[in-house]
Amino acid sequence: MTDFSVEANRFQTPDASTLQAGRVVIAVAGGEIIAVAPADTAAAAELRTQSPDHIDLGPDTVLIPGLIDLHIHAPQWQQLGTALDLPVQDWLQTYTFPLEARFTDTAMAEVVYRDLVATLLAHGTTTAVYFASVHEPATVVLAETCAAAGQRAFVGRVAMDHPEATPDWYRDADAATGVLASARSIDAVRAIDAGRGLVEPIITPRFLPACTDQLLSGLGELAETTGTLVQTHCSESDWHHAHALERFGTTDTSALDRFGLLRNRTVLAHGNHITDADIALIADRGAVIGHCPVSNAYFANAVLPVPELLAAGARVGLGTDIGAGVRPGVLQQCHEAVTMSRLRRDGVHAGLSSTERGAPTAAIDTTTAFWLATAGGAEALDLALGVLEPGYRFDAVAIDLDHRHGVIRRHTDLDDDERLFEKVVRLAQTSDIERVWVDGRTVHHR
């Protein structure tokens, strides 16, 4: 039995080089897409008549798959757009750890997280992978907020205990304490949304510099025994990459593997300094790079080699890296992923010849970037999302092409589907987003 159907101009990228565009009717039951038909066919007419609720979005609206954000620091929401003047190691100590430490206050967490989740949904972020803080109660608040708002989410209590990289007023007391707190958090998050399964826990060692060997080993064992996903930062900057080489005599990626943390669907934020051997290992383990192009420009000292990762079979998606990522929407990250890849391709040192300063095969296009934000991110997490096809969950975003308060303008004598697609990816803001669904339910309506 169909719950409803939607008729719209659909844009989607089933692979990294293909844009599909066209008007379709999509039938949804129980949150799952059960049928799709071109709008001008008899099959579409039948879907319309069979649906108790038929939603015709009209010619001025396009429908895209829900956007997937692989890397968000929820307690950094209040500093978004600020405090980007220091290298990452100093930024953490000066700005970020003091802010995150305030989340002992669950009342404050409730206010901040409600605003964060509602804002992300308004930007079309239907799936979010969250770092919380070290606090168990506030982590539960974040998970409860996602469940109540209807956002698909992975929520992780941050584990960190290394006395040389974390302040004594913001860290786990020791490795055993951190592992036990993470285990309790897994159970608490799973209990929140057990009926629907939209919100899941994720084990979250902050990054190697912040964790002792004992904590890393314990979290690796916890991942193995509970089957819980893992997320962390990996080779983000020169400093971060050098730390692993000095401390472990190997790269960040290899060290995480030794501790049992490089697993299927492990989300590795950034990864800008990974080696060819790291890429091969990431691909072999089925781990995921969460590419955060905006924050990388501030903290990473390099541009992620996206084409090389994809060519090696590694999984890649996009992340905003709130609060270092400046902007909350994934579409902006699509645009910036293209921009950063062009800078890497052409090089930035005008004092060198054009043959010396760039990487000729480094650029990606808008189609590839949008795939990273949708089907690529979904494949990375093994989720039936990212395209609007039968058998996939109905996570979708309706975007108005000509709203008077929006920024997109359609020029019918110029704009074919490819041009409109580029405008949606590069220009769409909350004023252009008309409606958002997660698992077949409306979670935002302008």
Tags for this model:
single chain, 446 residues, alpha/beta, Urease, subunit C, domain 1, TIM Barrel, 9-stranded parallel beta sheet, 38% helix
Summed up, what is this model?
The chain is of the alpha/beta class and 446 residues long. It contains 15 helices and 17 strands.
N-to-C span: 28 Å
What's the overall geometry?
globular
> Mean pLDDT across all residues, rounded?
95
Q: For the record, what is the CATH homologous superfamily label of the largest domain?
A: Metal-dependent hydrolases
Main beta-sheet annotation: 9 strands, parallel
Under CATH, the topology of the largest domain is which? TIM Barrel
What's the total number of strands? 17
CATH class of the largest domain: Alpha Beta
* Oligomerization: single chain
DSSP summary: helix tally: 15
Detailed description of the structure:
With about 450 residues, this protein is α/β, with parallel strands linked by helices. The protein folds into two domains: about 5-65 and about 385-445, Roll (Urease, subunit C, domain 1); about 65-380, Metal-dependent hydrolases (TIM Barrel). It contains 15 helices and 17 strands. It is globular and about 65 Å long. The mean pLDDT is about 95.
